[in-house]
Amino acid sequence: MDQQLAVFVTVAEKQNFSRAAEELHMTQPAVSQYIQALERAVGTKLLERSNKYVHLNKAGEIVYHHAKEILGLYGKMHYLIDDLTNNPNGLLSIGASYSFGEYVLPHLIADMQEKYPLIKPAITIGNTKEIAELVLGHQLDVGIVEGQYQEKNLKIEPFAIDKMSIIASPKNRLSHIEGEISIADIENETWIVRENGSGTREATEKLFKQCNISPQKILEFGSTQLIKESVEAGIGISLLSDWVIRKESENGSLVVINAKGVSIKREFSVVLRSPFQTKALSVFLELLKR
């Protein structure tokens, strides 16, 4: 059954039998046979076929969702058994929110690869909500998220504090005001924020509430890098992690704005689902907390 599920997931993701066959190093008739066997086992069609593409129907969507979970658990079981006798090795699927994943995690992975070259990390970047849901669905071994995310079926453990700063372009008028900036000044600016579900968006909303402000013009962008470039171009101001703006602060392309009475900090947290840990995961968590 696990082979049928693996073939089905590949077909669903490739949306094409021939591409799936190529990916799986199988013949197209063999792929079709696996799909037909799975459809017989569940008692209904799972795919809608056209001349070039195949698409999941409602039943297919249900099977796809659970197949991803089952295959993830199946792989994890093998890693755990293998770990009883071997050194840390194998695939380690890591998810991280943008701020940590794009600006801190690469240095941690480099350290892990130097010490444990047999571990093969696979990285997924998303917002806090997306990463937590992937861990919950057994599609990631571990997640690293920002802010106060809570889910009763996940173990969420803070491990670091992240300081955040309001940033502006050197061309922005706020950059030329001496001393602390007033709350009214930052309220009147165009704010560039992340999308809902992002830990950075949560921190920005916390800032607005703390300062009792309601900026009239807010632009929502789904990328931290896009926000940095937009602020640098003079479109508006934003709130970002000090990790994220480290290089730009040093070279002067972005300026930190010191607003009166504003201090925003948040937590980075590890998110886990399974009570069992492979040696690879244990090694990663040890490096992370160190």
From TrEMBL:
Q: Where is the signal peptide?
A: none
One Pfam family name is HTH_1
**Does the keyword ATP-binding feature in the UniProt annotation?**
no
Alphabetized, the UniProt keywords read: DNA-binding, Transcription, Transcription regulation
Out of the domains of life, which is the source? Bacteria
Q: Which residues form the HTH lysR-type domain?
A: 1-57
InterPro entries in the record, alphabetically?
A: LysR_HTH_N, LysR_subst-bd, WH-like_DNA-bd_sf, WH_DNA-bd_sf
The similarity annotation says: Belongs to the LysR transcriptional regulatory family.
Q: What is this protein called?
A: LysR family transcriptional regulator
Organism encoding this protein: Cytobacillus mangrovibacter
